[in-house]
Amino acid sequence: MNSICLILDRLHAGYVGAYGNTWIETPELDRLASQSFLFDQCLVDSPRLEALYRSYWQGWHAMLGDPPDDRPALIRPLRDRGIRTILLTDETQVAAHPLAEHFDELVGIDPPPAAKLARTMDRTHLARCFAQLIDVLDSTAEPFFLWAHFTALGAVWDAPLALREQYVEEDDPQPHQSAEVPCRMLPKDYDPDDLLGVSQAYAGQVSLLDACLGALLEFLEERSLGSSTLLALMSARGFPLGEHGRIGPCDDALHGPLVHVPFLLRWPDARGAGVRTQALVEPADLWATLADFFQVADLPASPSGRSLLPVVADESLVLRDRLCIAGTASEQAIRTPAWYLRSTPAPELYAKPDDRWEVNNVTDRCLEIAEAHLAALREFPQALREGKIGDLPALE
Description:
Elements: E1 2-8, H1 27-34, E2 37-43, H2 49-58, H3 75-80, E3 84-89, H4 92-95, E4 105-108, H5 125-138, E5 144-150, H6 161-165, E6 184-185, H7 192-222, E7 229-234, E8 246-247, H8 256-259, E9 260-261, E10 263-266, E11 276-281, H9 283-293, H10 309-313, E12 323-326, E13 332-335, E14 339-343, E15 348-351, H11 367-385
Parallel strand pairs: 1-5, 1-7, 2-11, 3-4, 3-5
Antiparallel strand pairs: 2-9, 2-10, 6-8, 7-10, 12-13, 13-14, 14-15
Helix pairs in contact: 1-7, 2-9, 5-7
C-alpha cells in the first residue's frame, strides 16, 4: 500500500465547493470530494509550521512544546518496513524541519523567481509544483509514502489574469492585479471594491489549484495508483479574506478562516466515499491514521491524536468533545461541538457550527459558558502532559 499526503497551505475552507462555496468552480476538488471521506470540522492545533509538523509527523500536540529527544517520527518505522519515504516541498520551513531528515529523499522546489502573473497556467509556480509531484510519482517504485507540502496560495498569486476575470461581474471594478500575496489589516473605512478584487484574485488562484489537482488525479487513474494509494488532502492553514478586518495571515489571530481547514481522505478501497462527519479532528489524527493504515504498532501513543478509521466506519462517532489551539504569543483557543472561544485579554465566544466564521461575539450574553471554556482550556495542557486527556470531565 502507498500513501500521498498533499498539504496545500493557505487554502480557505470557505472557497472549496465541498465545504459550501457556490461561486468558485472547483470541479476537480468536487470530484475528489465525491470519492473521499470529508471531515467538516478539522482545525489545526497551531498556525506555526514547526509546531504543526510535530503533530503531523510525531503526533505531538502544539501545546506540549518540544517533544523528548527519543520520541520517534512516523517516517522511520515506515522506512524500516521497506517503504520508500519522500518529502517534496517548496516551503523552506518544512524542508529545514528537524524531522525532515528522516525521509529517504528530500526533493526541494525552488521558489518562483519573481512575483508576476503568468501568461498560461503551465507557467505558474503551482503548476510546476504539481508537475514535480507527478514526475516523482512516475519514477518511484511501490510501496511509497510521499509527503508533499506546497505553499500553494501563500507564496505567489501568479494565476493568469483570465482566471480572475471569470469571477468579475459586469459592474465590478477590475480585480487585484498584483501577483504579490496581500497581507494587511483593513481600516474601518476600507473600500469594499478593494476587498472584492482581492477575493476574485484568490478565487482565480483556487481555480488554478483545481486544474493542477485534476492533472494529478488523471495521472493516478492512468497508473491505477488509486486502487493502492491512500490520498490525504489537507490545508496547513487558511487565509483570511476580510473576516475580522484581516487579509492574509497578518497577526495569525486564531479565527476560523485561519485555523479551520479542509481535510479529505480518499481510501484505496473507496470506503466512505462521499460521506462526511462533524467529528472534531486535529492534525495528530492524521499521524495516528497513517500509523493505523500502514499497521505500525510499535509507535508510542499520541497524547491527543486518534486514528480516523473508526470514524470512517461510523461517521456519527464522537472522537472528542474539545480541540485546543496554541497561537502565537499567548493566544489560545478551544473548540467544542457547540462553541469556539479565543482566549485573549477580552475573551471572545462564538456559537458553532452556525457562526462559521465568528461574526457574533456572544461572550457578554453567555458569561458562564465562556468561563467554563476558559477553565477547560487552562486544564488541557496539564492533561496532555500527563497523558490523561481521556480522564478530563465531559463538557456539558
